[in-house]
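Worked problem 6 (solution included).
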Amino acid sequence: MFESKKDYRTYAKARAAKSKSGKNCTLAFISGGSICVLGECFFDIYKNFIDEKTAQTLVSVTLIFIAALLTSLGIFDKIAKHAGAGTLVPITGFSNAMTSPALDTKSEGYIMGVGAKMFTVAGPVIVYGVVASVIYGVVYWICSIL
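Solution. The predicted structure is:
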């Protein structure tokens, strides 16, 4: 089919999809930044009524709730399709990773469906995050002794 490697490379280069990394990075920056701005707006509102430590926690809970609600309504996936990693990297992405499998397996029941499969996406993230934090903690402790 191809007489040389050069012919194949020319063919492959012509058929390969053009990278949209500049556009994707810009959209991720804007959407992720918008989520952070929204969080700061909630924080400014909450700290007028409660202490700052509680307001910080309430901001996280609010963003998690909004992302879960938007996921259940089918809106979050449409936003994430265009916004990319900007919606998936903040805490909203974790909420989506927990809510989506729970909704998909709801028909299997609350125990064997929702309860058992809710962590299929987020479970490895939690496990590796905890293991990594323990390792970093031990290394930090050893370094602080020396």
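Discussion: The chain has one domain: 21-145.
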